[in-house]
Amino acid sequence: MEMITSIAELERPMPIAPDAGWQRSAQWARRLAWVSLAVVLIEGVIGLWQGLAVGSVALTGWALGGGSEALASAMVVWRFTGARTQSHTAERRAQRGVAVSFWLTAPYIAAESIRHLTNEHHAETSVIGIGLTAVGLVLMPVLGWANHQLGARLDSGATAGEGTQNYLCATQAAGVLIGLAITPLWSGGWWFDPAIGLAIAGIAVWQGIRCWDGHTCGC
Fold first, then answer.
1. Within a 10 A sphere around the Cβ of 2, how many other Cβ atoms?
2. CA–CA gap between residue 76 and residue 84 (Å, rounded)
3. pLDDT at 16
4. Whose CA is closest to 143, among 28, 9, 65, 17?
5. How many alpha carbons fall within 13 Å on the CB side of residue 124?
6. How many CA atoms lie within 13 A of 60 on its CB side?
7. Is the pLDDT of residue 96 over 70?
8. Which of 33-37, 41-45, 63-67 has the lowest mean pLDDT?
9. pLDDT tier at 7 (50, 70, 90 boundaries)?
10. What do you get for the CA distance between the two ends of the chain, in Å?
11. How far is CA 79 from CA 26, 82, 91, in A?
């Protein structure tokens, strides 16, 4: 009986400890998450201020999306801190936390977009909003690419999910930027802003489902 137990123990695959390269990538993932957290909070505060001031649901939705993106960054920081760094359970929890972050603002954005479409609301333009979304359009794809690279090295869906949040933020920024630029040039383009808001809500729900199920967008 003892011999059978010994043989079974020998045949059981031993857990492989992460090497030094993996540990360095985990540290970079945590640092990058802190950077993303700081950036999206600044963008979120300024974007929310301007979105509410000019009545742009797309800009407001983009700013609120910064809150869910901040949650995704916080989950990655939590995932790669202390003993959780090598925990598969922590990885799964962090991945689902990132998924929830996609869903947080979708109902509000969708409801506001429908209301604005129904009431034919004409949003005003915002120079600050245009500059802010232009910065996001340049910066977020870089953060998204870096997070996806680290996610692949670490086999971390949470880190890759944060990268998808960065890509989604850049996509939203592009749409909002176009909407803000169209507003002063074409009075008949009032519907563009809430239409972008609806698209943002739909994409956020879809990505949340994929992340919850363990799939991440390579973008």
1. 6
2. 11
3. 44
4. 28
5. 9
6. 20
7. yes
8. 63-67
9. very low
10. 54
11. 9, 8, 6
